[in-house]
Amino acid sequence: MTADNPMTGPAASPLAAISLKIVGLVAIISAIIDYFVLLLPPDFLNPQWLLGLTTQLVDRGIVPLVGIALLLTGLWVERMAGSGGRRSNLLLDLRFLVCSLSSLLGIIFLIIVVTHVFNVRTTSQEALAQVSREAGEATSQLEQRLAGELSQQRDQLNLLFQDDELLQQAIQTGQLPEEVRQFQGNPEALDQFLNQRAQEAQQRIQTEIGTRREAADQQVRREATKSAIRVATGGLLLAIGYVVIGWTGLRRLMSASR
């Protein structure tokens, strides 16, 4: 008979079991520490902070799931090798604790999905309101500026109308159109002309402000939708994975303990 290869057969099972359990435990513990660090300093009343927190939790949610899978696989290999004793108390069984943790994480990730969607909605509404306020402020500043420029132009033209030489010089240099000469001595027509030019400028700038506001609104909605879909989908898949592993394991352990 040939001797058993020390790297194969039953001798390899304990080493594989220990390796899988260690890697699984390291992954789970490091993930828990990482999650704890993410919670510091807590600011649960801040939607932006919650949004960043839930996003990072979901992005890193695969690590403890892999750790749980590796740990359970290591425990299974250990049991198949016959080196894992049967626990008389289910609460002291590491498999029970791991499956309970998996179930708890599944529920937590379901809560994270709901929280994230709600915070995306809240932050997007705040961003849209901010865009609306900025557009309103820009419009108000525009009206004030045009009113000041209108008054200044009226005063300048009235001064030029009192001096034909200066008026002619301004027209020749292109500072004023030729048509302003017809308003000399007719202040009502001048006011109508200036008001019309101010309204045209106001409409042009308001159209530009409206275009920018619409683009900003679309960007806010687009980013909110992408964030909600990405994080909600990832969180839901993680929740399903944790719950399936946890509840399946708990059901089998309880059935076996009877």
How would you describe this structure to a colleague?
The chain has about 260 residues and is an all-alpha fold. The protein has one domain. The chain contains six helices and no strands. Helix 4 runs antiparallel to helix 6 (about 185-255). The protein is rod-shaped, with a radius of gyration of 36 Å. The model is unreliable at about 1-10 (pLDDT under 50).
SSE layout and pairing:
Elements: H1 12-38, H2 47-59, H3 62-80, H4 94-161, H5 164-172, H6 187-257
Helix pairs in contact: 1-3, 2-4, 2-6, 3-4, 4-6
Task: Give the CA-based shape.
Answer: rod-shaped
Q: What class, by secondary structure content?
A: mainly alpha
Topology order in helix (H) and strand (E) letters: HHHHHH
Number of domains: 1
Share of β-strand residues: under 5%
Rg measurement, Å: 36 Å
> Which percent bin holds the helix content?
over 70%
Number of strands: 0
- Tally of helical segments: 6
Unreliable runs: 1-9
- Averaged pLDDT, please? 83
Measured between the Cα atoms of the first and last residue, the distance is 43 Å
Largest sheet: none
